[in-house]
Design a protein that fits this description.
Distance between the termini: 130 Å
Number of helices: 45
GO molecular function, one term: fibroblast growth factor binding
Subcellular location: Membrane
Membrane topology: Single-pass type I membrane protein
Strand content: under 5%
Shape: elongated
Protein name: Golgi apparatus protein 1
Number of strands: 0
Radius of gyration: 41 Å
Helix content: 55-70%
Largest sheet: none
Organism: Rotaria socialis
């Protein structure tokens, strides 16, 4: 019994050898030196070889057998085919392989090796993929293709596996398709269920000696044969495993050039990529390149469901990953970016959401965005509109968002549209044709482009469009984990200032922005944060909390379109426009929306980069305000230069200053300087009139305990408020609206309005009329008392008396009415213009002494007693 089994095994080896030698025979004249294994006649059943049944090699290698011959071979691919009158050249004698065969397989012998022995030799070589030249690899690949598409392979399979074929309907359907190679492929799929030992041995012998992974190549060879020849992608793998994948290198070569593939081959390559996406073992090129890396970096990760891929993606820029592995990981990622359908775990996790929300990830003419970016935008759109997405899908989204944000080269639209910007603004990171350096990628190039988009006016609109699409798809502002470089740069700050913040829903990023000017905020974290915040501030869709809490109010009060989408470009609708609208309707907003609006407004005042309506309209004026020593005070600088600003910038500064005048808590610098003083002097003020807080601070700004930085902030607030009538508080407008409209319509500054009403009040007293109502008088008294405290608060008087102040009051400083008292002391010596203004002020102080700051402060004790 044992002898019979051994005989069967011997005959299968001989059968394989006969087929291997048949297609590229030895055409030397000394046929008597040919191996006996080259002279086996195919028969209908397995039997011992006999001399009577042996045919010479020449008879087997007839050029074209008769059409009626069932063993007639089909036409075979061969880029080096000879004319039909010539016999094919053996592998060992071919110009492509002769030197390598002699070097690695000849062992010093001058005898020409048979094709079978050449195949066995190459299979046994360690690192064959690097030892055998590419032309020879391509020749061997074509030879194997021709062999596997010989009908006699299928005939032999039918003979050896007849019983098992009947068990598998799928395989039985291929019996009539002789020469396709699909019958053996199908049987390999069911190898674990095959019962006949002879069949199992036959299948293993076929795939081990001749071809690679039958499971992955059922249609591959037919679909890609022309592409393999054209692109010279015939390759060998470098190891002979129990489940060989020799075509892994072929698939890898073709996938790197997928843009040049025919439609049929491209479809098959992506089909194979989809099959490989669950188990990294099936991507043989990546498996070979990353075996050691997997053990070193991902040893705790079990294979299956794409888990090893995910780990390798995450470790792609780890310094311990080898360049060869990094290159294969990048190739794998590029396939997924190009067609996301071939990442099976991602599609499986998000399939329900994709169907429900009609996420189209196919290529569309004129749309540069990659398949992965389109899917992420569709799913992000779903989230932003309040729909639920399963946790598993969210986890997969995060994996792919991190992947995109880590490596700019995975986004072909960035590579093509931003090349000029990379060369111009990121030269140290840009290398022509680089294939995967850590320094160039790891998110550094993308953040360099983000920073350049923020600072450089020459940044092209085409590059900005694709960068915008990437930021929307990745949305690092929503979940900081989606941006590995930002997360790494800010980790120490997060651990210190935001340790309990749960990732997602903008929690961490908003916490960091809240602490932008905190002493523990590092410069590295602030720079990376502002690069992302620049885009957040320019796209209202990237403020998820505001969108969630205020979406109804935005539609009701601010005409938010019903069909808004993450997939659309913005058309210049910025966050500030919606925030301004919400602020105007703040008293009518939902309570939750009010709270979120106020928080966003507070954050935006911390840096000019968070106020695009200011930054974008004031580029020229901001250039004169750049001072590294006072970083973050650019807006304060613009307010100081208010009267000299360009009209477009002036309008933007006016709009924002109006809000800070009405609600001083929106003035970040003022609040930062005065927070301790507010606790000391104004702790009992919570929800009174809009300007109760600033009035309290003004009242106590000359107290001994007042911090000098807070006093300076209050002075700036008061001086700025005098520069435009728009800066009148809402409380003042309400109580004095009738008087202003009737008597002061031509006044353009707050100082002018106050002076107009002061003149009216003086006339009322002198003529005993009542043109100003009592409610307006209360507001005016406070404003007049402020004005008399500093010459800076009365621009017209300061301008008229400029020469006299320099002459008589050079040793005095503004505040505490020092300069005003000095001018009054010298009123007989001052110039005529100054005297006219000063006399009017003195009249008002005599008639309405409660508006004289000097009198009220110096005599405060006596006045309180009386």
């Amino acid at each position: 019994m044992l002898r019979r089994q051994l005989l069967v095994l011997l005959l299968f080896v001989l059968f394989t050898a006969n087929l291997a030698q048949k297609y590229v025979p030895n055409d030397r004249n000394d046929n008597d030196e040919n191996d006996d294994e080259d002279q086996v006649q195919p028969v209908n059943r397995v039997q011992p070889p006999s001399n009577n049944n042996l045919k010479p090699a020449s008879s087997i290698n007839a050029n074209v057998p008769p059409a009626s011959d069932p063993l007639a071979p089909r036409r075979y691919i061969d880029s080096n085919r000879r004319p039909s009158s010539s016999l094919p050249t053996p592998l060992a004698a071919s110009k492509e392989c002769e030197s390598d065969v002699q070097k690695y397989c000849g062992k010093g012998s001058k005898q020409l090796l048979s094709n079978l022995k050449v195949l066995q030799c190459v299979d046994d070589l360690d690192n064959a993929v690097n030892l055998i030249n590419k032309d020879c690899q391509h020749r061997i690949y074509q030879f194997k293709y021709n062999m596997t598409h010989d009908p006699r392979f299928d005939d032999a399979a039918v003979r050896q596996c007849s019983k098992d074929i009947k068990l598998f309907d799928e395989c039985e359907a291929y019996v009539t398709k002789r020469g396709s190679g699909r019958l053996v492929s199908c049987l390999y799929d069911y190898l674990a269920n095959i019962t006949e030992p002879s069949c199992r041995y036959f299948i293993n012998q076929m795939q081990a000696i001749v071809f690679s992974d039958w499971r992955l190549t059922e249609y591959f060879s037919d679909a890609c044969s022309a592409d393999i020849a054209k692109l010279e992608c015939g390759r060998l793998d470098d190891e002979n495993e129990s489940i060989p994948h020799e075509q892994g290198a072929v698939i890898s070569c073709l996938s790197e050039k997928y843009g040049q593939l025919t439609i049929t081959c491209r479809k098959e390559i992506f089909h194979l990529a989809e099959m490989q996406s669950d188990d990294y073992h099936l991507d043989r090129a990546l498996y070979y390149a990353c075996r050691d890396d997997r053990e070193r970096l991902c040893s705790q990760v079990s294979s299956g469901n794409g888990r090893v891929y995910r780990c390798l993606y995450e470790k792609k820029f780890d310094s311990m990953m080898t360049p060869a592995c990094r290159k294969e990981v990048h190739r794998r990622q590029s396939l997924v970016v190009a067609d996301v359908k071939f990442d099976a775990p991602l599609i499986r996790a998000c399939k329900g959401e994709m169907i429900q929300h009609k996420c189209n990830v196919d290529a569309v003419e004129g749309d540069q965005r990659s398949s992965l970016v389109k899917l992420l935008l569709c799913l992000e759109d779903t989230l932003k509109k309040g729909h639920h997405i399963q946790d598993e899908c969210r986890r997969e989204m995060l994996v792919h968002r991190r992947m995109l944000m880590s490596d700019y080269a995975l986004s072909p639209e960035i590579v093509s549209e931003c090349k000029t910007e990379m060369i111009q603004h990121c030269p140290s990171l840009f290398q022509q044709g680089a294939s995967g350096s850590i320094g160039q990628r790891g998110g550094k190039m993308i953040h360099c482009l983000l920073g350049a988009a923020r600072k450089e006016r020459s940044f092209s609109s085409r590059c900005l469009t694709v960068i915008n699409a990437l930021v929307r798809a990745v949305d690092p502002g929503n979940d900081i984990r989606a941006d590995p470089l930002l997360e790494t740069a800010c980790r120490p700050v997060i651990d210190t200032l935001c340790p309990r913040m749960k990732a997602g829903n903008s929690n961490v990023v908003l916490c960091l922005l809240d602490n932008l000017k905190n002493a523990r905020m590092t410069e590295e974290c602030e720079d990376r944060l502002m690069e992302v915040a620049y885009f957040m501030a320019r796209d209202w869709r990237l403020t998820p909390r505001l969108m969630r809490t205020c979406q109804t109010n935005l539609k009701t009060f601010c005409q938010l379109p019903e069909d808004w989408s993450m997939n659309k470009e913005l058309n210049d609708v910025q966050v500030g426009m919606y925030l301004g609208c919400l602020y105007q309707h703040r008293k009518n907003l939902d309570r939750e929306c009010q709270g979120e609006l106020k928080r966003i407004m507070h954050i935006r005042t911390q840096a000019i980069g968070l106020m695009p309506e200011i930054e974008d309209n004031c580029l020229t004026d901001l250039a004169t305000c750049k001072n590294p020593e006072v970083k973050g005070e650019e807006f304060k600088c613009l307010q100081k230069k208010y009267n000299k600003l360009e009209e477009q910038c002036k309008a933007a500064v006016r709009n924002y200053t109006q809000m800070t005048m009405s609600d001083p808590t929106l003035d970040f610098l003022l609040m930062k300087a005065c927070e301790p003083m507010m606790q000391t002097f104004c702790a009992n003020i919570e929800n009174g009139h809009e300007n109760d807080l600033i009035r309290c601070l003004i009242k106590h700004k000359h107290e001994q305990k007042m911090d000098f930085r807070c006093k300076a902030g209050i002075d700036h607030h008061q001086i700025t408020s005098m520069k435009d009538e728009a800066f009148l508080s809402q409380q003042f407008r309400t109580k004095c609206n009738a008087e202003v409209n009737e008597h002061c319509t031509g006044k353009k500054t707050k100082a002018g309005v106050i002076q107009c009403l002061a003149d009216l009040m003086l006339r009322d007293v002198l003529k005993k009329t009542n043109a100003i109502r009592e409610s307006c008088r209360d507001e005016l008294r406070f404003e007049l008392l402020q004005r008399s405290e500093s010459i800076d608060f009365d621009p017209s008087l300061a301008k008229a008396c400029r020469y006299d102040i320099n002459r008589f009051c050079a040793d005095r400083t503004p505040g505490n009415a020092q300069i005003l008292d000095c001018l009054k002391e010298n009123h007989n010596k001052v110039s005529a213009p100054c005297f006219a203004r000063l006399r009017k002020r003195e009249k008002l102080d005599v008639i309405l002494p409660e508006n004289d700051y000097s009198l009220m402060s110096k005599c405060a004790t006596v006045i309180q007693v009386r």
